[in-house]
Specification:
The structure holds two protein chains of two kinds. Chain A is about 65% helix and about 0% strand. By secondary structure, chain A is mainly α. In chain A, strands 1-2 form a two-stranded antiparallel sheet. In chain A, helix 2 crosses helix 6, helix 3 packs antiparallel against helix 6 and helix 4 runs parallel beside helix 6. Classes of the chains: A mainly alpha, B mainly alpha.
Chain lengths: ~260, ~80
Amino acid sequence: MAGEAEGQGLSFHPMDQFAVKPLFGDALNLTTVTNVTLWMAIAVLCIFVLFVLGTARRAVVPGRMQSVAELAYGFVHKMVEEVSGHDGLRYFPYIFTLFCFIVFSNFLGLIPGALTLTSHIAVTGVMAVLVFLSVTIIGFVKNGTQFLGLFWVSSAPLALRPILAVIELISYFVRPVSHSVRLAGNMMAGHAVIKVFAAFAPLILMSGIGIAVTPLSILAITAMYALELLVAFIQAYVFTILTCVYLKDALHPGH
Amino acid sequence: MQGDIAAMGAYIGAGLACMGMGGSAIGVGNVAGNFLAGALRNPSAAGGQTATLFIGIAFAEALGIFSFLVALLLMFAKGF
């Protein structure tokens, strides 16, 4: 915790907030209920409440909850249609599920004391690898060997094409890495920065200039928090839109 | 003297990995700046290109995040 007293003076551990701890007891194995399980359940519950209760009454003039549900649905629907084309809409439920889960775990992670699910590379990695595998399978099922045309840049001069094919192949296999690390890294770095600023406030209060610096530090936390709110949404948006881009590549592999 | 030479190397390496942030910052600034320059020339076309803007920013930013990843690995992934 920030400003935790420990032996000599104060120390703070900005990375402690990401620790996976069992909720009951200390044993940690494959089926232990941990804080990750808890926050995943909370995220799923929030999504369930928003979309089931939000669309239960289906009023012509939507209430607050129904407006949010409709806005979210329309936002992702439009994104899938614009980026991956009309035939990409078959995969809209999956993409919308990804978006909802990421956006809710990002925002729930901003509650002080909460665990940010998407800061764990294990969580984002599973999502990115699933997207990568399903997109590759869709590409081969839809286009057969034509899908390999993705790596053979037919608009480039013939001598350059083998070199470009190697580069394209590497960039294709780096996709799941960058896809997952981008989300996890952004979330982890942002939350650690908030924690570091939060630790400045009590640490510097001990010294003489604390009266002047602590308010500034608190202002900085507020500003960082506002930025994190923006980042939490943008990263969910980026993850979703990149999924759409990869899906477009699988459906229409021509350059 | 505390610690050992390997830990010192890891800490220095983690600090050096922060230089990757600069490159990423230049990349993101380039994308956003060029988008703004284009958008002010033709504001009516700007709205449809925000998705492209964010994809460009995401690609530029991912490489900065990779340097963060390298720093984390140096700090926490011991025993390589």
